[in-house]
Amino acid sequence: MRTDIFARLDREPEPPKIEVPRMTRTRLALFGGTSAFYLAIVVAVLLSTWLVTLDWKIMLFRPYQQWPEIHGFLDYYVVLGQRGPTAVMVAAWLGWRSWRQHTLRPLLCLGAALLLLNVSVGAVKLGLGRLGPHYATQIGSAELFAGGDIFPSGHTANAVVTWGILAYLATTPRARRYLSALSAVVALGVGLTTVYLGTHWLSDVLLGWAAGLLVLLALPWCEPVLAVAEAWILAARDRVRERLRERRRLVPSLPVASGGPRPGFFPPRPPVPEEPVREPVREPVGLAGGRRTPVTRG
């Protein structure tokens, strides 16, 4: 039996018993509180309250000019919130987890979370149409309904969901605590980095944090649907495997001589029998009607 660290990379012989998160009272309370915070941010921006004034003060302060020495590092750090690179990295990790644990749940949870994120955040972005700081036209204005797509921050919400899904799928309480803290730090840093770079207002980031957290809190409601989808996909996989096995049984297994042609999918045609060759009847020379013909000598 292997005891080294590489033994954890082997595939488990049987699917482990994983406790699926439920929509508990605590989670419901967090979902309700986050929803209220989300609504409060939207109302504060719609009414151009003190939050919009704070947005403009930070924008005119121009943090990227105050601390230019960290600009290069934060240009790379903000990639941790981009949907493409982060989705590929996390999907690779969860794909290995799916293979090792004989279950599609990690990948299905990631797909469901990204789908909820795109629909919810994209609808609010297009509905409010807020312009970003670099495209603002009037100082003190909320810049709403102007054809933009900056509110809420997609970078921030994506960082919360993409890295938070690792904590959601953790199998032990200890791993869940560590991954929750790590994902919170990454999401917090990505959001503040977009404010530093001037690509988002502070209120965009606050709403992005709330939007991503709502998606993670709503995932237990999707678990029954994901279980049905996993069962359907695995059943379809088994049907395809059975069809392939049946096709292999129908193909005749013919012996192949060394260096000879390999048998195809169709049996060879039987050889056409050759007609027997008839030899001509030979008669003795000089016999005609059974009598000997006299030979005349000269």
TrEMBL record:
Gene3D superfamilies: Phosphatidic acid phosphatase type 2/haloperoxidase
Residues in Phosphatidic acid phosphatase type 2/haloperoxidase domain copies: 107-220
Organism domain of life: Bacteria
Keywords, ordered alphabetically: Membrane, Transmembrane, Transmembrane helix
Region (Disordered): 255-298
Pfam families, A to Z: PAP2 (PF01569)
Bias (Pro residues): 264-274
Keyword Membrane listed: yes
Parts of the chain that traverse the membrane: 28-53, 73-95, 107-128, 150-171, 178-197, 209-235
Name the UniProt record assigns to this protein: Phosphatase PAP2 family protein
Organism per entry: Streptomyces litmocidini
